[in-house]
């Protein structure tokens, strides 16, 4: 950990201590217990508001750190099957083979010839030079595309594109031709990219967020010892501070997280991070649209739950997966699966996953 980051955490700890008062030694001990035995990162401690002395031991036991959850996920998900979800092309191929709805992969760019031997792509065009890249992009008649690293995480380097003849308008305001797109890809540290069908948010969701871009659902499944798949948690990641992506990123992106009721598929409450970065707060109305987000019924909500339960069986022997789903005007599609899914902010008892059998 860098010195600058240590200083930042110390300043946050001082600010939290001033906010809550009490003994400095007691606050320091609590921080040590949370980041030591309980394995929370400093970011988790501050964002989740775990320094609040009103939270007693029983309250803290409802939370689970990313590291503790990762240990649990590693124990129940066989590592030699991780690629089923973590390799986006294998994920796509497995969805197609099992008749699961997922956005189409239209082509692959690889800067290394080795990717041509990928076992799942005989029906997907793979190119690795500039001329073939141009030919691929010119052959596509889809007006809206996504270009993303095949092994990327947290939306890093993803480009959302809308085509206007030979120009592609990007989500960040650039107008690029096919050569400039390739130059941007080559300038990154990723070697393998896929061109994918772009989906847009269901109009009812877009009416809340003010953005046509996806606010995806994260739905977590668990397959028990009897091979019965069930949904154990569900959230809607709601675009708030960005018009393009719904990543939460410890609240830094300015987006929100709505906990979804597992019976009704309605949002129970929505949380974001306080302005000072220390603790969560409930958000009633979306600041852009002014609409009350509580009780919002996720379009195709029951279909969403049915799809992930079916998908969980198809991706055995992986036992817990966090599914990212696009909810569109035409239904639900599986965008990604995550065997090491992150615990998103919620008031629910996340720690109970450690006791699931």
Low-confidence stretches: none
The arrangement of helices and strands along the chain is HHHHHHHEEHEEEEHEHEEEEEHEE
**What's the tally of helices?**
11
Placed side by side, the strands forming the largest sheet appear as 2-1-7-3-4-5-6
The major beta sheet can be summarized as: 7 strands, mixed
How many structural domains does the protein architecture include?
Answer: 3
Overall pLDDT score: 91
Strand-residue fraction? 15-25%
Ends distance: 36 Å
Report Rg. Answer: 21 Å
Shape: globular
Helix-strand makeup class: alpha+beta
What features would you highlight for this structure?
357 residues, alpha+beta, D-amino Acid Aminotransferase, Chain A, domain 1, seven-stranded antiparallel sheet, 23% strand, globular
């Amino acid at each position: 950990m860098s010195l600058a980051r240590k200083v930042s955490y110390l300043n946050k700890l001082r600010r939290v201590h001033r906010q809550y008062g009490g003994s400095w030694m007691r606050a320091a001990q609590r921080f040590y217990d949370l980041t030591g035995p309980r394995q929370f990162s400093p970011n988790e401690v501050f964002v989740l508001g775990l320094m609040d002395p009103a939270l007693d031991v029983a309250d803290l036991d409802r939370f689970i750190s990313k590291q503790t959850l990762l240990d649990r996920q590693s124990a129940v998900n066989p590592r030699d099957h991780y690629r089923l979800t973590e390799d986006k092309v294998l994920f796509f191929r497995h969805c197609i083979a099992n008749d699961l709805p997922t956005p189409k992969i239209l082509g692959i760019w690889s800067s290394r010839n080795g990717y041509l031997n990928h076992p799942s792509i005989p029906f997907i065009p793979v190119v690795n030079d500039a001329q073939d890249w141009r030919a691929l992009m010119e052959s596509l008649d889809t007006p809206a595309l996504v270009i993303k690293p095949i092994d990327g995480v947290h939306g890093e380097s993803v480009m959302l594109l809308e085509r206007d003849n030979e120009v592609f308008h990007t989500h960040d305001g650039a107008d690029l031709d096919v050569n400039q797109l390739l130059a941007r890809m080559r300038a990154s540290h990723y070697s393998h990219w896929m061109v994918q069908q772009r989906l847009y948010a269901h109009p009812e969701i877009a009416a809340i967020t003010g953005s046509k871009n996806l606010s995806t659902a994260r739905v977590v499944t668990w397959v028990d010892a009897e091979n019965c798949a069930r949904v154990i948690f569900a959230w809607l990641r709601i675009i708030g501070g960005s018009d393009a992506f719904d990543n939460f990123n410890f609240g830094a992106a300015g987006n929100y997280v709505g906990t979804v009721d597992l019976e009704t598929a309605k949002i129970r409450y929505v949380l974001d991070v306080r302005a000072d970065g220390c603790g969560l707060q409930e958000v009633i109305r979306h600041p852009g649209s002014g609409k009350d987000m509580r009780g919002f019924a996720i379009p195709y909500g029951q279909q969403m739950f049915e799809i992930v339960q079916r998908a969980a069986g198809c991706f055995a022997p992986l036992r817990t997966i966090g599914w990212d789903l696009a909810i569109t005007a035409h239904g639900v599609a599986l965008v990604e699966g995550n065997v090491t899914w992150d615990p998103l902010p919620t008031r629910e008892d996340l720690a109970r996953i450690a006791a699931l059998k």
